[in-house]
UniProtKB/TrEMBL annotation, chains A, B:
Gene3D superfamilies: Medium-chain alcohol dehydrogenases, catalytic domain (3.90.180.10), NAD(P)-binding Rossmann-like Domain (3.40.50.720). One of its GO terms (molecular function) is oxidoreductase activity, acting on the CH-CH group of donors, NAD or NADP as acceptor. This is NADP-dependent oxidoreductase. It comes from Tepidimonas fonticaldi. The keyword NAD does not apply. Residues 17-335 form the Enoyl reductase (ER) domain. PANTHER family: PROSTAGLANDIN REDUCTASE, PROSTAGLANDIN REDUCTASE 1. Keywords: Oxidoreductase.
Length: 339, 339
């Protein structure tokens, strides 16, 4: 059996996460039992939710245990199988974690999913045609539920989730305005993803400036907003929100000191008769087939070309993850594990 | 035609509203045109929403114009009619305003509604079997949508809206916990309205204390919350909110300086996968018949005995209204105009 490089979480962050919270180890992959398959990971997905798991605090998911392999989505190929439905060479998506190989009980439902890489490159099953894409789909379709001609905004618009929100909203005939950090990301959002406009929040640092930029970009107000960030962005959106507008709450950052950022004026929820709803995509597995079908078609046909930032080698995962938290990635952040 | 005492709004509040914002005038009621009826108001309703109308700022409703009769719900009797469907002696509910008489175009839909005072005393058509009751019904039934056994909390629980929320939630098999100010109101909420418990927020002034009191009163967490107040109450409820809990946002107060009170930790909306929804009952006229039927039955059968605070004479309306804003009323605040 092959050697397996793994990244463990060995301590919890005090404030900002650092590379010292992680440790690289090397182990032997175990021999397969009946029903198990050995998967060689080609790509590891890095996602913002992982930061929450590093804490030992109440959230919707249990914390990542210390001294175990960091959780994470992976796409790879079966290299050995003792399960009748899987054969060497099969491409599979799963939660293999921050490591080069994983041994999976293929009988357990939901742990492995075979994917077709003939039209969709494997890495996209971790992004636009995977969890981030379905996250976008659920929040947009099930919470915002936009009508043609309505205006939809999305923060972190160049990211894996935000880009899919915009493309899906354009498919539904909406005016779509992104919010992203820096001119390169905004140009990508407008020119390559096809958003109607994109606001560079770095050019509009305070609430008033951001609200004015939103007013200019959304002359008919905002009917739906997909929130990946929170804080000032959400406060500004609420100032431009139309009556009966909907906010899908997918991600919220904390302030610099780790304290939660307040919502400045919640009475706008009443004044604008808004609906604000938080969700976790893994609690809505019933939508995955429909969502993945639409997303796969968009990517497979080339109408949606998701951007990726790729780090190389499992050793680079902690540094790449910390960069993701600082917004240094551009599109979906991956780690390529097979050269 | 009779003389008519009226209260006008003559200036907008700078900070706190005062009696100087109002002026009493006396006018002659005009002669009736075809299709009009003259209504003598027996009761005027005083409601928190009126404070918002006194401002000249963006909200869901236009501001109250200066030097015109303050808007307000009224119940009274037709004393003269030039409309075939209304006869002297008919009891009618309408938006007659802060005055003793009103002349109404009875042909315009929605301005007048005949009511049956044989089982329900007329004043309750301004409270439990009127707009406040339907407000409670909509937020509870259409937004919170509680299941039997779930826990529902409501702030301003002894008030016209809050008391109806609790009674309706008990009808639906919920555990119901009120939040009110002072031992008398809490005793009424528990002993007369039949809530399972009531928290005196004056005994739990800060967020931590209020959250602990909620934890004790809601051992299974909070599944639905009806918010009439906002601020610390809402922050505390969010700390005890269950996964997939719903908040119906009906009223929000501002801080002492007139600035909006922030929501301290909006990331709890995501962590608890909450849905928070603001609403205005007048935008949901389709539910009124169903809601009024249930509320009328509860009041008519004596299972719901709403408390009223009654001021006497139109001259007392400004002072009574300012008392309502300070929570000095106990239950529905009315002004009795006919002795």
């Amino acid at each position: 059996m092959p050697l397996n490089k793994q990244i463990l979480l060995v301590s919890r962050p005090q404030g900002e996460a650092t590379v010292d919270n992680f440790r690289l180890v090397e182990t032997q992959t175990p021999a397969l039992a009946d029903g198990q398959v050995l998967v060689r990971h080609h790509y590891l997905s890095l996602d913002p939710y992982m930061r929450g798991r590093m804490n030992d605090s109440k959230s919707y998911a249990a914390p990542q245990p210390l001294n175990e392999v960091m959780i994470g989505g992976t796409v790879g190929q079966v290299v050995d199988s003792r399960h009748p439905r899987y054969a060497p060479g099969d491409w599979v998506v799963g939660m293999g974690g921050w490591q080069q190989y994983s041994v999976v009980d293929a009988e357990q439902p939901g742990l492995l999913r075979k994917v077709d890489v003939s039209r969709v490159p494997p890495s996209h099953y971790l992004g636009a045609v995977g969890m981030p894409g379905v996250t976008a789909w659920y929040g947009l379709v099930k919470i915002i539920d936009p009508k043609p001609g309505q205006t939809v905004t999305v923060s972190a618009a160049s990211g894996a989730v935000g880009s899919a929100v915009g493309v899906l909203a354009k498919q539904r005939g909406c005016r779509v305005v992104g919010i992203a950090g820096g001119p390169d990301k905004c140009a990508y959002v407008r020119d390559e993803l096809g958003f109607d406009d994109c606001i560079d929040y770095r050019e509009h640092r305070d609430l008033g400036a951001l609200a004015r930029a939103l007013k200019a970009a959304c002359p008919n107000g905002i009917d739906g907003h997909f929130e990946n960030v929170g804080g000032t962005v959400l406060d500004a959106v609420m100032l431009r929100a139309n009556a009966f507008s909907r906010v899908a709450l997918c991600g919220m950052i904390a302030g610099y000191d780790g304290q939660p950022l307040p919502m400045l004026n919640p009475s706008l929820i009443l004044i604008n008769r808004m609906r604000i709803e938080g969700f976790i995509v893994s609690e809505h597995m019933e939508v995955w087939p429909q969502a993945l079908a639409e997303l796969g078609e968009l990517v497979g046909s080339g109408r949606f070309r998701p951007r990726e930032t790729v780090a190389h080698g499992i050793e680079s995962a902690p540094e790449a993850f910390l960069g993701l938290l600082k917004g240094r990635n551009f599109g979906k952040q991956l780690v390529k594990l097979v050269d």
